[in-house]
Structure formats: structure tokens, C-alpha cells
## 1
Amino acid sequence: MALSIDQQVTLVEILMILLGIAITWAVYHGSDRAELPGTAAIPDPSIPDDMTSDTRGRSLT
């Protein structure tokens, strides 16, 4: 069964709309658990900051 040009264009349009919906869902899925600036934990001022950088797993060369 061969599709006409109009049917092919319509099919591609529908598939692109569904792809856009899928990408949007993938980006926003679970975003309600993201740490927002207003909800970040406030560090305890009595504990000093760690002065060393954690570079494990990083390559700086």
C-alpha cells in the first residue's frame, strides 16, 4: 500500500508533533523534585566550609 504525497506529509506532521510531546515530557518528567533556589538547604554556619575541591572522576588535562 503506497501513500500519496499528502498522506505522507500528514503522517510526518503527526509524527513530529508526537516527537515534540515526547521530548517535552522527557525534559519535564521529574522536574518537580528539582532543587530550586528558594528551597535549597541552608548550611549550618557552625560547620566550616570544606576548603578542598572534590576532583574525583574529573580530568583536567
Note: The radius of gyration is 24 Å.
## 2
Amino acid sequence: MKMMGKLMLVVVAMLASSSVFAANFDGTYKFNSRMKDGNADMSGWTGEMKIANNTISRTYHSPDGKSEKFYIGDLTQKGDLYTVKYTKAYKPEYVGNEHTNKMTVQGNALTIEATDGKFKEVWTKK
């Protein structure tokens, strides 16, 4: 009986660890900043990101309100990295592209960063 209890504990721990991904990132976020190749990118833009059910949706609006960029994709975890495969985007040629990044949460800030350090976005949870 003790062995069965230990086995159940292991199963519960494994299931809990697989759902940590959703618990850590699910929510709605406000765009703060973006860096590309070490330079500020999209300064003055506003945006919103939603993560739910392993789907990530990001929408950005230009400072003058005339331009919009959007990306929607499936989010999967691979070890300590996260891959987004775009299913919809403001440019059709982006659909099907995959990007693997580090995603970290510290307080209310969620950071998405390329493994080579050439891309970094910071979002604040609403």
C-alpha cells in the first residue's frame, strides 16, 4: 500500500510540473519594451499579449495609430525553452515560422528573450 501511495505521489508531481507552464504565463500583458540586435525597437508602440491554453497572441499599435502588427501561435515547452509556431500574422509569410525563446517571469514582468540575446521583449501582467 505504501508503494502505491508513493507511485501516486510521483504521478501527481509529474502532472503538476507539466501544468506549471500554463500557471506561470497564462494571462494578459501590456507591452513595455523591445530590443533587437542591441538597439531599442518599436519605441512608442503599445501592445497587448494574451497567453492561454498554450496559445500566445501579441498585437502592437504604432504611436500614430495607423499601423498594427499581430502574431498568433501555438506555444510549446522544450526543456527550459519555449517555441512559438505562428498560425496567423500580419504578414502571411510569417505563418508557419517557429521561434524558440527563453521566457521568464519575475514579479509582474514577463520577458521573452532569444537564446542568442539578439531579441528581447518585456511585458507587464495586467
Note: The longest helix spans residues 2-25.
